[in-house]
Amino acid sequence: MARTPKVVEDRREQIIDAAVRVFSEKGFERATNKDVAQAAGITPGLIYHYFASKEDLLKAIFEEHSPLRLMRSLPENVPDLAPEAMLRWVAHQILSIVESEQYVRLARIFLAEVLYNPSMASVGFAAMGEVVGFLEHYLTLKMESGEIRSADPALMVQLFGGSLMAMVIRRQLMQDPLALHYTHEQIVDGVVTMTLRGWLQT
Amino acid sequence: MARTPKVVEDRREQIIDAAVRVFSEKGFERATNKDVAQAAGITPGLIYHYFASKEDLLKAIFEEHSPLRLMRSLPENVPDLAPEAMLRWVAHQILSIVESEQYVRLARIFLAEVLYNPSMASVGFAAMGEVVGFLEHYLTLKMESGEIRSADPALMVQLFGGSLMAMVIRRQLMQDPLALHYTHEQIVDGVVTMTLRGWLQT
Amino acid sequence: MARTPKVVEDRREQIIDAAVRVFSEKGFERATNKDVAQAAGITPGLIYHYFASKEDLLKAIFEEHSPLRLMRSLPENVPDLAPEAMLRWVAHQILSIVESEQYVRLARIFLAEVLYNPSMASVGFAAMGEVVGFLEHYLTLKMESGEIRSADPALMVQLFGGSLMAMVIRRQLMQDPLALHYTHEQIVDGVVTMTLRGWLQT
Amino acid sequence: MARTPKVVEDRREQIIDAAVRVFSEKGFERATNKDVAQAAGITPGLIYHYFASKEDLLKAIFEEHSPLRLMRSLPENVPDLAPEAMLRWVAHQILSIVESEQYVRLARIFLAEVLYNPSMASVGFAAMGEVVGFLEHYLTLKMESGEIRSADPALMVQLFGGSLMAMVIRRQLMQDPLALHYTHEQIVDGVVTMTLRGWLQT
DNA sequence: CATGAATGAGAGTTCATTCAT
DNA sequence: AATGAATGAACTCTCATTCAT
């Protein structure tokens, strides 16, 4: 008797998955319901059994597959790692999540939408806020302990994360060869060294 | 006499300006020719006197108002500034150009287009490459002189620029309050300090 | 069961029929999709469920209702009729097929199209070739048997058929009263007598 | 002082000539005023100084360049030629006029128009009537003198002319290779022999 | 649940025609 | 006389959405 809801869930999921694929390839506007239906192996009419409209399908993608939810895999309490180990671990974590095919697909759709509907960005801020918050907390502690130079910790975290974010945008969304030239290892190395020690010879 | 070509240029310009406004607000796909015409104070048919198609109008925007052309205002010969002064100047330059209303409009259109048409990105890479190349050259010299720690200069520049780029994206395109909280001064200070000296207490 | 394909066929057929009527009255260019839809009792959009474009609808008319397919009702083996009976029968056959309302409609559309798109004429040449070939074969045999004067049989058949073709064009397509003045009987009589015996008193 | 009207005539003529070329190549509907203007070396607006509308330009073509007017070059009084010489001369005359580039152009436009506007055909009937009348008169005389078999002279002439007309249509308008295979000489020979003596061996 | 034929609103585009210059 | 920018009506075509089956 628990079959109907299960099937319903499956169909919904199936349609959402197809939509992610189609929207991320052609863009929401350019993709038609027929495209989505085809990709999902169903007929266009059926979409309307599970979603009120095409727009609604897009919202469902964000609500149920938020690209940022994936990043909530950070530890609850700040581990007591040395700054370098910590940054290295976070950078690696971010890169490996964020450069997965699934994530890139969602990010593309999300970014395209946010560009003309900034109110939707709030969905993203929450998750991003968590990452920022986590590192900010860590930084604050390390500043108090004197291990790290005093500065606005939130800004520092944003600059650090931004380096990575911009890299990923140029690599995955714009396919800039200049950015694609590096391995994760090189990027992590570079960003961690720069962030912690800076360019200047000491 | 010689007025006709001027008028033609004016109309073209007028339509392009209207299109930039409309496209940047609603997105290229969502914006209609009627919208553009209205914003330009003409009738939709007239667009086709100056552009072969809606797509062609979009291309004209990029070709004639390339958002990246604006950044080609870098000094010809690498000035012999100290790293801090240099970075500070570059960061300021970038921020002030890139956060202008006109530039943000173009960037929004450009980014949205590039997401689903990466081949168009090449237009952007050229200009971005110039900025990167300029700083890379500077960095290389300073590394040779021992003033700056040895590292992949291109990667360093990309990480530095990425910090700013991500900041601008979050501020202007996503209107992230977390990012909007800072002044140009604070951002420049933060990014320059971090980039040159790093987080670690020395 | 098995009804859906039937309905689909019906709609297609219905649209094609309407298109034949409309195109033959106003011409392909002058007729609008709205006209066709109205004549078919549907909305314009539906045409695109069955045909890729207006042009495609035109092609479908020719492919599925080829005006020349109708003339493929010639006897398989050359019957051993005397020349007069044979010509009389062929002339009658041609006239009765070719002066039907349906045929005239198709011919009008076809001719109009061929005038500016001679490549399309090949569709017609095939069927016309069959009729010509059939009579040519007959003529050749009769020339060999000495019953008919030696001459280029293909040319002879074309001239004979041309007499009829021109008559039909002037009657049905141009409605020339001079040509409409005659009955089928009179035309057949005239063309057969002239073709076989010529004008000269013998 | 007779210059202005002359220039006007020239411009009109120039536009009409261009229109004949353009209409005969693309068809009246598919050809645009811009096409015509370009072909005439003027601008579209100027057409409206000489013609009330595009339609009007088409009418002017027919009125001033009637394709059938060209055929009015027949002798006033029936010459006393033997039937064979006469038919041969007429057939040659018709073919050489009617297969000229200028004539074919006009005929194409005319035929395309007449297909959907049979009332316009009357323009053509007059001229065609003259040719028919001429030969009909000749035939009647020869029938009375017993040289030619008694029959409906008008029908005979139409069948004779139809053979040629159909040949020309297939050659020039449909470019049927079957018809293009013959020279004028062969066609004249064939049609005259057939018309006068018929197919049957005597 | 599922289909896909059908609709209707509206998009991009074309072009005959006008008219200020 | 001549231009060509400008208009507006109409066209082809697309597609989200509905609904009878």
Verbal overview:
Four copies of one chain form a homotetramer. With 202 residues, chain A is mainly α. The first copy, chain A, has two domains: 5-62, Homeodomain-like (Arc Repressor Mutant, subunit A); 66-199, Tetracycline Repressor, domain 2 (Orthogonal Bundle), CATH 1.10.357.10. In chain A, 72% of the residues lie in helices and 0% in strands. The first copy, chain A, has helices spanning 3-26, 33-40, 44-50, 54-65, 83-98, 101-116, 121-144, 153-173, 177-180, 184-197. In chain A, helix 1 crosses helix 6 (101-116) and helix 7 crosses helix 8 (153-173). The longest helix of chain A has 24 residues, at 3-26. Chain A is elongated and about 65 Å long. The N and C termini of chain A lie far apart (70 Å). The mean pLDDT of chain A is 89. Chains in contact: A-B, C-D. At the C-D interface, helix 6, helix 7, helix 8, helix 9 and helix 10 of C face helix 6, helix 7, helix 8, helix 9 and helix 10 of D. The structure holds a DNA duplex (21 and 21 nucleotides).
Strand coverage percent of chain A:
under 5%
Number of domains of chain A: 2
Structural class of chain A: mainly alpha
In DSSP terms, counting alpha (H) and pi (I) runs of 4 or more, how many helices of chain A?
Answer: 10
User: What is the first-to-last residue Cα distance of chain A?
Assistant: 70 Å
The CATH architecture assignment of the largest domain in chain A turns out to be: Orthogonal Bundle
CATH class of the largest domain in chain A: Mainly Alpha
The CATH superfamily of the largest domain in chain A turns out to be: Tetracycline Repressor, domain 2
The main sheet of chain A comes to: none
